[in-house]
Amino acid sequence: VSIHKAFYKALALAAIDDLHIHDFRHLFCTTAAQSGASILQIKAITGHQTLQQLSRYTHIEGARLKHIVDDVDK
């Protein structure tokens, strides 16, 4: 079963451009990382074979990284 046809039809009806099913994978990985999930946990959930693959999907902003460093510094 493929949801692609229905997904893209819904996007067209809603006049939404430049959104792809794969974008939700990026969103999940990034949100999970920012919520405190470890990279290994996210890798297990998403099924990525390598950390290099996962790194393409996980985008952690600089402010979040600084917060982690500050927590460790305490």
Overall helicity: 55-70%
Query: What is the overall shape?
Result: elongated
Mean pLDDT: 86
Kindly report how far apart the N and C termini lie: 50 Å
| Strand/helix succession | HHHHH
The total of beta strands comes to 0
Structural classification: mainly alpha
Content of β-strand? under 5%
**H/I helix tally:** 5
Largest beta-sheet details: none
Low-confidence stretches: none
Q: Could you tell me the radius of gyration in angstroms?
A: 16 Å
Defining key terms:
about 70 residues, mainly alpha
Brief write-up:
The protein has 74 residues and is mainly α.
Fold topology:
Layout: H1 4-13, H2 21-34, H3 39-46, H4 51-55, H5 62-73
Textual characterization of the structure:
With 74 residues, this protein is an all-alpha fold. It is built from five helices and no strands. It has helices at 4-13, 21-34, 39-46, 51-55, 62-73. The model has no long low-confidence stretch (mean pLDDT 86).
